[in-house]
Amino acid sequence: MDRKGKHVNLRVIFLDDQVHAFQIHVKAFGQVLWEAVVRHLNLLETDYFDLEYEDAHGLQCWLDREKAILKQLPNPDRPLYFLVKFYTPDPTLLEDELTRYLLALQIKRDLMRGNLPCSENTVALLISYVVQAEIGDYPIEEYEDHTYLSAYGLKYVPNQTEALERKICEYHKQHVGETPAEADANLLDTARKVDLYGIRVSPAKDHEAVPLNLAVASMGILVFQGFTKINTFSWAKIRKLSFKRKKFLIKLHPENYGYYKDLVEFFFETRDECKGFWKKCIEHHTFFRCHTVKKAERHKTRVISRGSSFRYSGRTQKELSEFVRDQYVKRQPFQRTVSGRISSRSTSVTPKIPAKTSSLHNSADLHNSTASSGSHILDQSTSNHQLTNQVESVDVHSDSSLSGSRSLGSLGLPRSPKKDVGQSHNEEVAESTNGATYVPDVPYPGAEGTVIQEEHRDKVLAPLESPGRATRTPHLLTREDRKMSAPSLGSDAVLPVNGNRLSRSEEVENIPGIIEEESTEPTEYSGIRSGNRSLSAADTSKSASDRYELEDQPPYLPPPPIIESTLPPPPPPPLSEDLSFTRDSRGSTPQHTQTIGISSNISTISNSRSSESEDDNKRKVKRYPVDRAYFIAKELLMTERTYRKDLEVITKWFRLAVLTDDSVPDYLENLFKTINPIYEFHCGFLKEVEQRLSMWEGKSNAHLNGDYQKIGDIMVSSFLRVLEHYMNYFERQEDILLELEQALKDDKEFEQIYKDFETKKVCYLPLNTFLLKPCQRLLHLKLLLERITKHYAPTHPDYNDCKSCLSKLSDLAQTFRDQRKSLENLQKLIELQRDLVGLDTLVHPDREFIREGCLQKFSRKGYQQRMFFLFSDMLVYTSRTATPLLQFKVHGQLPLRGMIVEESDHAKMAVANSFAIYGGNKCILVAASSQEEKDKWIEDLNEAIQSAKNRNDDKLRYASLKSSTSSTENMDTAAQEDKAPPPMDKQIQHRANTTMHVCWHRNTSVSKRDHEKAVKNQLSGYLLRKFKNSNGWQKLWVVFTNFCLYFYKTYQDDFPLASLPLLGYAVSTPDEQDGIHKDHVFKLQFKNHVYFFRAESEYTFERWNEVINNITNSARRIRVFSRFDSQKPGEINDDAV
Question: Which of 253, 378, 450, 600 is most buried, judging by how many CB atoms fall within 10 Å of its CB?
Answer without folding.
Answer: 378
